[in-house]
Amino acid sequence: xxxxxxxxxxxxxxxxxxxxxxxxxxxxxxxxxxxxxxxxxxxxxxxxxxxxxxxxxxxxxxxxxxxxxxxxxxxxxxxxx
Length: 81
What we know:
By secondary structure, the protein is mostly helical. The protein is built from three helices and no strands. It starts with 20 loop residues before the first helix and ends in a 5-residue tail after the last helix.
């Protein structure tokens, strides 16, 4: 893994601040991290806003509603993460 704060050169854009473990685990495949960031921004919330629980993604659903749905889907799918 590329440690947080040590991403340099072409990989300097991998971490938008405090990096979630899933991003750090994927850091040796930088294009996969970038694709995940793009997907997250489109379907959920931009990663640079992830740590801010009051961040408003500007979507039809509020952040609280998004989190409720995500939690329920995780429970239904028996997701342990």
